[in-house]
Design brief:
Elements lengths: L27 H16 L17 H15 L20 H10 L13 H18 L5 E5 L2 H16 L4 E5 L5 H9 L3 E4 L9 H8 L4 E7 L11 H11 L2 E5 L14 H8 L6 E4 L12 E5 L35 H13 L7 H21 L4 E3 L7 E6 L4 H17 L5 E6 H7 L10 E8 L9 H8 L9
Parallel strand pairs: 2-3, 2-4, 4-5, 5-6
Antiparallel strand pairs: 1-7, 6-7, 8-9, 9-11, 10-11
Helix pairs in contact: 1-3, 3-10, 4-10, 5-6
Length: 479
Amino acid sequence: MSGEDASASQPPGGAASGSSTPGPGWTAPELDVLAAAARRLGAGFEDLPAWRPSPPGPASPGALEAVLMETASRLTDNYPYFHPLYAGQMLKPPHPVARLAYALAMLINPNNHALDGGRASSFMEREAVAGLAAMIGWPTHLGHLTGGGTLANLEALWVAGRLGGPEGVVLASADAHYTHGRLCGVLGLPFETVPVDPRGRLDVAALERRLARGDVATVVATLGTTGRGAVDPLADLTALRDRHRFRLHADAAYGGYFRLAGGVGAEAARHLAALAGADSVVVDPHKHGLQPYGCGAVLFRDPSVAAFYRHDSPYTYFTDADLHLGEISLECSRAGAAAVALWATQRLLPLERGGDFAAGLDRCVAAARALHGRLAADGRFLTLDAPELDIVVWAPAEDAAEAISAASRRCFEAAAERGVHLALTRLRAETVRRVWPQVDVGAAEEVTCLRACLMKPEHLDWLDELWAGVVAGVAGRAS
């Protein structure tokens, strides 16, 4: 996109949205604020004796600039993840305050494993995680940040395994993230999947049949599946837990923040509200929380699970009697800058219903529903039910599975040629038979479809441009 003019950052027919340049970068006001904040940070240590940093390597400013410019050139070999024309993978630009706070914290480079390595940033992490717990609906909790959702889910399943025993089965829906099965393999826990309903949500009836056989220790509910953005029926699962006595873990890495949104449907809102009834919850601030990678979070409703983490490290935890974050985490070294960035973002954009943060989520949902509406009204496409969050899945209207898969790939490529970046996904054959019974699935096990993650509030402004890319591969067919 380096060859575009400045108007490329503006929604067609609208005012500028964000930066006045087509590519990513710091604005001059942002750099001024960062410089001023860095000076204030430096003033806090002005009582230290003077010293001169001596990093290894050439000291020449010219050498530093040359390498940084080469780095910038290499980084242009990327899709435009930051731009509204990108709607492929789950990539959302960090908020400017998160980028600035992260960069500021890197002048200190704190390690939040122990208070000795990241005192201020550890307290900021506690405050930020308490904000996430309050969003879930927990007045008390145990939790911390992680490098991402995978490790956060690992910790939740590890605690579940300690409570349920090595023979206790872990259940998740067939559309849950693939890492749950892999993590259970790492932990030595038996893992099984439960079928999903036509909307991609865990099938409660199928779950009840499996629970009746006994030996289930943990059920994983996904609040926002990566494939379709489906919200598992968490409220119904809490009632089942009372009868069958399993541990209920909510993987809300993608959808957890939508608990604040007012624009989701009543059914999804009911299950998101039920997060407060889960035993553990995972949320990824680096998805909808406007944070840089990597920033995940794991939270437990019962703080007593801290007993499973207990260990002794006399060379690490020696200057403070307060609980160190490393004492409630499987990870050791962790970037304190991630906590600083999240804390700053939540100070600027509080996690509250009706606030600016929630309004951004509502715009994402509105964009997804608007795109789905156009697709559903156009005879050239096959659609699923209206999206629960901000992910849309569809396919070109063909009679057979093989033709749909081929046409989806053509549409994907045609959209990319127009600068609109989508994603491909696969639906299982049994799902296709249920949602598109007119399609001849034949011997196919999966059908390739198209998918858009409308994670940016600006996607609502850019819907016409996105639509032009969506229809590019079927332009010759009658609508």
